[in-house]
Amino acid sequence: MPxxxxxxxxxxxxxxxxxxxxxxxxxxxxxxxxxxxxTDIMLFIYRWLSxxxxxxxxxxxxxxxxxxxxxxxxATMSPEKGYAVLELRVEEELVTPVNIEKWTxxxxxxxxxxxxxxxxxxxxLLRNMGISNAQAVxxxxxxxxxxxxxxxxxxxFDDSVRAGNRNAYGLMWxxxxxxxxxxxx
Length: 185
Description:
Blueprint: E1 3-11, H1 13-21, E2 23-24, H2 28-35, H3 39-52, E3 67-70, E4 83-91, E5 96-99, H4 100-107, H5 116-129, H6 133-138, H7 143-152, E6 168-172, E7 175-176, E8 180-184
Antiparallel strand pairs: 1-4, 2-7, 3-6, 4-8, 5-6
Helix pairs in contact: 2-3
């Protein structure tokens, strides 16, 4: 299998977890600590992401959420106090690419259109209803529009649907100790 190098920025406690358990998995405790005020909103999205990843069927036991990685060292946030940037060497098939523009739309509770016409039609619908994507998703007053928006998120993993450029992050289910080639704190 071809291997690639990816990077991930994690709380420094991950180093200890890798040493003692031999692996790191993301769990709700870490997400709650990192996201603070936006936790409930982001957990909704992260649960959707976990259940809809193409590799969801091969998720390792006891793993709930994926770990984010970067394909470029420069795109990984610089280390800061209490954090480490891990350089990993992994089999390419273990990493699921995620288009940054499409992911940003999801984190904003927005629609991922098929094309420009689909986007114009969707925006027209929202204008006519006097609502935004976020209002439709976060309330129970617009169930059909909410369903349509969330269904569009499956396009996150559809390479035939273009959004912005091809810049991407990656997702992995776990980080194993033997994959770590370097750690910078």
